[in-house]
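User: Hi! I'm working on a homework problem where we have to compare a predicted structure to a textbook description. Could you give me the structure for the chain below?
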Amino acid sequence: MKLTKRKGFNFFRSYYDVYNEFENDKQKVEFIDALLNRQFQGIKPEGMKGLSKFAYISQVNSIDTQVKGYEDKLISLNKGVPNYDPWQGVKEKVLTPTLQVQVQEEVQGKEKEEVKGEEVDSSGSNEPPTPPLKKFNFQNSLIDYGFKKELVTDWLKVRKTKRATNTETAFNGFINIVESSVRDKNEIMTTCVEKSWTSYKDDWYNNLNKENGGNKKTSGATSGGSRATSKVADSYE
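Assistant: Happy to help. Predicted structure tokens:
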């Protein structure tokens, strides 16, 4: 069991909204574990991938703001206490038994005051205010996920020309396609830019390779195959 000195934190509506966007329990658990470990242990998440990583990044500002507020408040309340850490308390090895008891009593009394300060009690309710929803940005989301900035800029030009909408739903759909492919994400986007695709499928790419092989046999067959693949891609976009 993980021990913590913190009594609670504000679980905002935006955390719940993001949580409900996940498609499977694994992503939900990874996001909630990262959130709770950060709030109650002060541990920053490592090794997160995919949509759970993107979701945590979208909320990291409000998460870190709460954590910093908790740390600053405890450090201020315990100013002058030697070797004090907001997550571990006092390192007992440098204190005598008598001083340990005195310091612990002081810390406990100040923590009660800190908990009262964290409580939201406006109009008789402890419910935290709903923070303003963060505006979704298609370009920044792609860059945050790990796509190269120059590729993202070029692909957005393709999508603008094809009149594709840059919504959060479109982003999530594209990311699901990328994660299900064996190809590198930046290789996929490079193909989309070169072929003027607003989306991607491995089948389209495989058909292109087949057509390139057919090029060596007959240019007429290649021309017909290229038109067929183009129609398939356009029908999906």
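For your comparison, note the following. Residues 141-236 form one domain. Confidence is low (pLDDT under 50) at residues 220-226. Good luck with the assignment!
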